[in-house]
Amino acid sequence: MANQFDVVVIGAGPAGYVCAIRAAQLGLKTACIEKWSDDKGKTLLGGTCLNVGCIPSKALLDSSHKFVEAQKDFALHGIKHEGVEIDVPKMLARKDKIVKTLTTGVGGLFKANGVTLLEGAGKVLAAKQVELTKGDGSVEIIETANVVIATGSRPIDIPPAPVDNDLIVDSTGALEFSEVPKRLGVIGAGVIGLELGSVWGRLGSEVVVLEALDQFLAAADQQIAKESMKIYKKQGLDIRLGARVTGSEIRGKEVHVTYVDSEGNETSIVFDKLIVAVGRRPYTEALLAPGSGVNLDERGFIFVDDHCATDVPGVYAVGDVVRGPMLAHKGSEEGVMVAEIIAGQKAQMNYDLIPSVIYTHPEIAWVGKTEEEVKAEGSEYKVGTFPFAASGRALAANEKDGMVKVIADKVTDRILGVHVVGPSAAELVQQGVIAMEFAASSEDLALTIFSHPTLSEALHEAVLAVDGHAIHIANRKRR
């Protein structure tokens, strides 16, 4: 029958569309359900990441960084120019074009791999049946041997600052400002808040970031976090820690925000725009029928085991809707793993080596354990660091801010963590991911030849510094 499949994936974001493509590659008759559509009713593939997340934000981050370079840094290179201005509508149009290219590309990949796209909303029923509700309201029952839930996540709303999609926006609305706001507030100093605050700050906004926690980037290595905070402050971002927002009021074209500061004092501040970026929650609304047998954990995520299997045999869940970091690459790899398991292969993924990246400029990236985590475990360890200020390639590129940090086991010398704030941090950390996936020691990387002059040499010098052998900085005296 036309509506019978080996695999039905609900959601066409990075976790879902990758899972569907891999399942089809493995010879499984596969369908992918997606309900997201544009204002003309055309189905949008790619999920949050491609449409209103990773990709459009990176497009704006790159555009805004080039603006700052032209405005402030070209003169250092002897490049003369006058009157650099930003054309916000054109910048947004470029972003939209990139998004359209990639989302259209997903549709092409579905066709090339034989994935059937089912347009509408999916609901998991009992006995691995899936209910498909189309845009016109009609309903079909899809029979399948396996279901993969990949419905993603949505921004968290907070009562003190309700989103009105005008003056108070979430991460999606922050990608669509038609002009640069003079005074911009951001609630949340996490990845999304820092990236979006950086975009508009570079373009001329006075940015104040209100973070409820007293610790900056709590998930990151704190030496890297402190170095990052210094860089952000130098760039003009006003990051206020221990600032708990208690209310907001729209008065005309202004947003008046009240918050309690780290000393317990109530403070008021006025913005032209306010971005709420306090995190995301799993999207499970109208997804599970009462008799589906699929359960949620105490935080509202779909409960799965280490192989993303739910409590119902043949029903899996991947990506933001399950435990673990809400990262596109994590979801994609879970999708591949599940597709291969369904096809009868032995598959697993290494959850200990999922890299994290903040795409500000400079970037912040890390993989493995932080120094705080290693210390808390009571393990003996050693650390090597190297500043980009001592890198010839970084100086030549006018990218001297930041550092590379490598943590290794003191007994086995195995690399436990790689942490970077600086130019191309994501790419340098990826080298660390590869090394750690092969259980490399710091000596293994130290004995590796790195080309000169490159930013990668900073990683090489950091692993040399682990044992006090760095060449291009003075080594710390060992006790």
Automatic annotation (TrEMBL):
Transmembrane segments: none annotated. It holds the Pfam family Pyr_redox_dim. It catalyses: N(6)-[(R)-dihydrolipoyl]-L-lysyl-[protein] + NAD(+) = N(6)-[(R)-lipoyl]-L-lysyl-[protein] + NADH + H(+). Keywords: Cytoplasm, Disulfide bond, FAD, Flavoprotein, NAD, Oxidoreductase, Redox-active center. InterPro entries: Class-I_Pyr_Nuc-Dis_Oxidored, FAD/NAD-bd_sf, FAD/NAD-binding_dom, FAD/NAD-linked_Rdtase_dimer_sf, Lipoamide_DH, Pyr_nuc-diS_OxRdtase, Pyr_nucl-diS_OxRdtase_dimer, Pyr_OxRdtase_I_AS. Its EC number is 1.8.1.4. Residues 5-335 form the FAD/NAD(P)-binding domain. It comes from the Bacteria. Residues 354-462 form the Pyridine nucleotide-disulphide oxidoreductase dimerisation domain. It is an enzyme of class 1 (oxidoreductase). GO terms for molecular function: dihydrolipoyl dehydrogenase (NADH) activity. The keyword Flavoprotein applies. Coiled coil: none annotated. Belongs to the class-I pyridine nucleotide-disulfide oxidoreductase family. The active site is a redox-active disulfide bond. This is Dihydrolipoyl dehydrogenase. The gene is lpdA.
